[in-house]
Amino acid sequence: MATVFKKTDMLTEVPFHYCPGCTHGIAHRLVAEVLDEMGCQNNVVGVAPVGCAVFAYNYFNCDMQQASHGRAPAVASAIKRVAPQNIVFAYQGDGDLASIGMAEIVHSASRGDNITVVFINNAIYGMTGGQMAPTTLIGQTSTTCPGGRCAAQNGNPIRVCEMLATLDGPAYIERVSLADVPSIRKAKKALQKAFNCQKEGKGFTLIEMLSSCPTNWKMTPEQALDYTKNEMQQIFPLGVFKEVK
Ligand SMILES: Cc1ncc(C[n+]2csc(CCOP(=O)(O)OP(=O)(O)O)c2C)c(N)n1
Hints:
This protein is 38% helix and 19% strand. The longest helix is centred in the last third of the chain and has 19 residues, at 181-199. The strands form 2 sheets. The chain has a 7-stranded mixed sheet with strand order 2-1-3-4-8-7-9, with helices on both faces. By secondary structure, it is α/β, with parallel strands linked by helices. The protein has helices at residues 24-37, 56-59, 72-82, 94-100, 102-111, 151-154, 160-164, 181-199, 214-217, 221-235; strands spanning 44-48, 63-66, 87-93, 116-121, 124-125, 131-132, 170-177, 204-210, 239-243. The chain binds thiamine diphosphate (TPP).
């Protein structure tokens, strides 16, 4: 079989449990490759979320800490403060970060905590069976809005990058997509930038990755990638929202 991926010591040999077409695995690999290439494997602490990526501690071959639902930035901030020689990252889904954990992410960004947050926006609660998330699109169906999200009843999707970019604390905020190969290459560059900012002590960094959830979106993997590109990217435009030089 052809080698598709570069070997990275930053990932264990444990096979990912993700559904076919889910992009959590791609996001894990990108984080691992970047940290590996920075040569900091022995000085990395990751914080795993509650959500589909709850087993991230089995996959990343570095020190990992599990946080309770939504609290990953608070935990990551504490770890960075007591052990600042480490690169510290929090890995969170949209339910975790933008729903139950909205207070933690806002205050961490506002404090300018010198951590990196990898924010996986798949517009739905994946792990619990597809409930509406703060980032669910208007018209998108979920188990809690079977007729499609309606602004009058359910509110509008929250743009986390744009919102956090208004704060003084963040050093680097970018939204990328995992919907095709050129986008994935850009996503890797964004992670490099964020982790380098942290290394230079610049402060809070967050990379939002538009991701697909074919299982809960009730689509094939290909349809889900098209939906990410054609629908999600309309509501969540890609780009850099904050960069402190
Ligand atoms: C305090 C608490 N409330 C609710 C839950 C149930 N719960 C587990 S995962 C999850 C949503 C995860 O969705 P998201 O963060 O979008 O990640 P995904 O699974 O889509 O990757 C919820 C509500 C929980 N585990 N703990």
